[in-house]
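User: Quick sanity check before I run a bigger batch. Here is a single chain. Can you write out its predicted 3D structure?
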Amino acid sequence: MYNFSYTRLKEYSKHLSAHTAAEKQKGLAIEVGSELNLKAKFSCLPGLKGKDRDPLAVLIQISSKPPLTNASTEDRIVWTGWFCRMYREDDLLEMLPKTFTCLLLLLYNGSEALTAIVGTWFQRNFDCCFSKLVISSQALMWLAAM
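Assistant: Done. Predicted structure follows.
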């Protein structure tokens, strides 16, 4: 990601929240029963690093307060994503300038509509791209066993 800064996570949270609300209001990703009161939160996950010099993993959570609930009701998390770096011995990415943060893997849990909105925001703000990674069932079983 180009010009990504860990010191600006609060700012990114506000911008992604505003972008998500704007996209939902435009009707691009309206789902039955969806709420417009969405809030994004960025944080670091220091335990998800392959090597010491790898960048910190980033957790993004999008939460929603259900309509017609009182103020003390907790927000419900509707989308979660984790950006992390995959370790590779032949890593050519280490030759990139320091203005790039290489978090090559996005694991997410949530609707495809919100994933598309989040992906669009990241692509516009950090000049990055997304593509699906196909993982075989055998590899998933091996990862689960680890």
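Strands lie at 38-45, 57-64, 76-84, 105-110.

User: Great, the batch can go ahead then.
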